[in-house]
Design a protein that fits this description.
globular
Length: about 210
């Protein structure tokens, strides 16, 4: 499953894991960065529509703290509409350089508009231009139309770095469960699952 020339499968002792998942996620994230994992902040985001049909895509982590795992998108996009209909989602990180996965799932809430705009304006000019282009997930008439709209959005983003994008929304997933998976060359993968309970977290091992 893993090429030893590019993947280091480190031992993982679940009995030494912290009582809550966030400190372990922070440690694993830092170790992935130190090990040379490219784009460790990218993650799969799974949602479902009003009929329960699932959807998944790759998005960027905007931070993880006591309030939850954060990501952002247009409220008018497909995933924004799905989160409005069913405000529950799942995330998955895969860091092949260490043979590790982290899975997170729980309810999702939208941040206040001021905080969402602050998130957008803390990013790059290109990110603002893309947000200003808008209309995410809508039908596109041609690549030429996209080029025109994008050019105008880039010009505005450069002139107005604080230009508002009302549909831009910062979301936070507050986890009910967080699973840490450490691959093992003999397929004795270690799976440590944190499950939220009243007053704290329960830890349990899962069969690989």
């Amino acid at each position: 499953m893993w090429d030893p020339e590019v993947t280091e499968l480190r031992p993982f002792d679940p009995t030494a894991a912290p009582a809550e998942p966030l400190p372990l996620f922070t440690t694993w994230f830092a170790e992935a960065v130190a090990a040379g994992q490219r784009e460790p902040h990218t993650m799969s985001l799974a949602t479902s529509d009003a009929d329960g049909h699932p959807d998944v895509r790759i998005v960027m982590l905007h931070g993880a703290d006591a309030d939850g795992w954060a990501f952002a998108t247009h409220a008018t996009s497909r995933k924004g509409g799905q989160l409005a209909a069913r405000p529950y989602a799942a995330l998955a990180f895969y860091w092949p350089v260490l043979g590790r996965q982290v899975r997170v799932r729980g309810p999702v809430t939208a941040a206040p508009a001021q905080e969402s705009q602050g998130d957008l304006h803390a990013r790059s000019t290109g990110a603002l231009a893309a947000a200003l282009t808008g209309r995410q997930s809508e039908m596109l008439g041609s690549v030429e139309e996209l080029a025109r709209e994008s050019k105008a959005a880039w010009e505005r983003a450069q002139k107005e770095p604080d230009a508002p994008v009302p549909s831009w929304t910062l979301y936070r997933l507050r986890p009910d469960e967080v699973e840490f998976f450490q691959g093992d060359e003999r397929r004795r993968h270690v799976r440590l699952n944190y499950r939220r309970e009243e007053g704290g977290w329960a830890k349990e091992l899962l069969w690989p």
